[in-house]
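Before the break, one more example. Copy the sequence into your notebook; we will annotate it together after we see the structure.
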Amino acid sequence: MKKSLKFGDFELVWLDGGRFELDGGAMFGVVPKVLWSKKYPSSADNTIPMAAWPLLVKTRDSLILIETGLGNKLTDKQKQIFRVKEQWNLIADLRLLGIKRDDIDYVILTHYDFDHAGGVVTKEDTGALTLTFPRAKHIIQRKEWDDVLNPNKRSLNTFWPINYEVLKKSKNLELVDGDMEVRKGIRVILTGGHNRGFQIVRLASGNTRALHMVDLLPTHAHFNPLWIMAYDNFPLESIAKKEEWEKRGIEEGAWFTFYHDPFVLACKFDQKGNILEKHVDTDITEIVP
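Here is what the structure looks like once it is written out:
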C-alpha cells in the first residue's frame, strides 16, 4: 500500500498502476546521457525505471482519481516491449483503503496514452470489457478525445481502441473545453505540449497548492524546462508551459506531484530546481496549511 500526503482538506494517495522501463534517450530527448544520467539511473542498455502512479484525491465529499495506470489488458508482447516489471494493482490498493470501484466519483485523464488510460477499461475474469469505475465521470479535454478517435500515424501506437471503446459507448464521458474546476480546489488546465489536448491538474486547499504536471514534468530530474521527452508532440509548447507552471508553482510554494517517478512522489523546488522538501514512499506526511 502506497503512502499518502495530507494538506488542508485533501489527502493524496499514490496507487500502484504498474512499473515498467523506457529508453532513457526517449525520456530525456536531446539531452546528452552524460548530463541526465547524473540525475537519474539507467541500466547498461540505456533503459530507465518508470512508475505509473494513479493519484487518488480524497476530499470531504468526493473521491477523485487522476490517471488509471497500465490496466490489466496488455498482451505478453506489449509487456515485453514496454518491459513491464510490476503489474497493475490499482483495484487491490483501493480495496485496502476500503474503496470499491463504484465509490470513485471522478476520473481525470490528463491525456489518453496507454500508460495513463490503460486502466479506464478492465478485463473481467469472464473476459468481458467493462468500465473500471462504472459510476465515475471521466474528465477529458475535447481536443484530446477528438484525437483519440481520429489518431494520426504517430498516435496510433498509443491510442488503443481496447482502452476507449467502452467509454465511448457509455454515459460516463465528460468532455472539457479548456480550464474547468472539477470540484472545489481541483482544476484541470489545458496546456497542450505533450499532446494537443493535454491537461494538468492544480490542487488548492487552505494555503497549500499542488501541481500534477504528469508528462510535462515526468520525474524530479526533468525540472529544466528544456529537458523534455522525445514523446512530446509539440515540444516548443511543452517547454513554454513547463516554464510557466514551474515558475507559478515555485512562487506559490506548491508541491509538484509525480506520476512516473519511482523515487520521488512529490517535492518542492527552488528557482534553480534544487529539491527543498520531498515526499517518498514512507509514512504519512502531514502538511500544515
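The first helix runs from residue 24 to 28. Helices lie at 24-28, 33-36, 76-81, 90-96, 114-117, 142-149, 165-168, 235-252. Try to locate both features in your own notes.
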